[in-house]
TrEMBL record:
This is PREDICTED: Retrovirus-related Pol poly from transposon. Residues 19-258 form the Reverse transcriptase Ty1/copia-type domain. InterPro entries: DNA/RNA_pol_sf, RVT_2. Signal peptide: none annotated. It holds the Pfam family RVT_2.
């Protein structure tokens, strides 16, 4: 029952944003499969917080130049992140972190994609009907690119300039002040000396996407961040411990040389 509720909740969210329309499969077209992925979300004390079900398209069933073409999406460069952190430390700028909920679902599709109806959930009583996707879905090969394209377009619309050296970096100068943003998939850092612009930016993005403010920067691309007035301390302790736990090496004995 819990997993069924989670599936129904996911379907309500997808249908609310009109992910697809039900149509007969056109002659000569093929469908992309889909499946459910189930995850348990835990609280800090280890107890179960909620049951999460996500509908995933079977991207491996897609055909190049039929239902996808370009798939590349840029990711933040570590050097760019370090430069932003250094600027924030030197100028005592705030370092704020935001997360976009269900980022890949915001992407716009250019290709014509037909998907099998979700298993276990009746979406139609008619035979031979399939889902024609209107928006991107997790699992599609082009989902990361579609999401980043949509995000970059929104940033440019708001007056930000995209860096030519790192396409995940966006800058806005106004009356001698600077606001900078860098994004890694759906996780972003915002800094700068224009407090009014940062507040306006938050409101703008919240109107474009479902945003979550994570407060001061604490963890980004595997790096823990702690700061004082003019210093920033970076550590990858959590990342290393998670890696050791994943590989069953938590009890290993460290040595000085390989």
């Amino acid at each position: 029952p819990k997993w069924k509720e989670a599936m129904n909740e996911e379907m309500r969210a997808l249908q609310k944003n009109v992910r697809w329309e039900l149509v007969p499969l056109p002659h000569g077209k093929k469908t992309v499969g889909c499946r459910w992925v189930f995850t348990l979300k835990h609280k800090a004390d280890g107890s179960i917080d909620r049951y999460k079900a996500r509908l995933i398209a079977k991207g491996y069933t897609q055909t190049y130049r039929v239902d996808y073409t370009e798939t590349f999406a840029p990711v933040a460069k570590l050097n760019t992140v370090l430069v932003l952190l250094s600027l924030a430390a030197n100028h005592d700028w705030p370092l704020l972190q935001f997360d976009v909920k269900n980022a890949f679902l915001h992407g716009d599709l250019k290709e014509e994609i037909y998907m099998d109806p979700p298993p276990g959930i009746p979406v139609t009583s008619k035979e031979g009907m399939v889902c024609k996707l209107r928006k991107s879905l997790y699992g599609l090969k082009q989902s990361p690119r579609a999401w980043f394209g949509r995000f970059a377009a929104s940033m440019r619309k708001s007056g930000y300039v995209q860096s030519n050296l790192d396409h995940t970096l966006f800058l806005k100068r106004c009356k001698g002040k600077l606001t900078a943003l860098i994004i890694y998939v759906d996780d972003m850092i915002v800094t700068g000396d224009d407090q009014a612009e940062i507040q306006n930016f938050q409101k703008y993005l919240a109107s474009e996407f479902e945003m979550k403010s994570l407060g001061d920067l604490k963890y980004f691309i595997g790096i823990e961040v702690a700061r004082s007035k003019h210093d920033i301390f970076l550590s990858q302790r959590k990342y290393v411990l998670d890696l050791l736990a994943e590989t069953g090496m938590l009890d290993c004995k460290p040595i000085d040389t390989p």
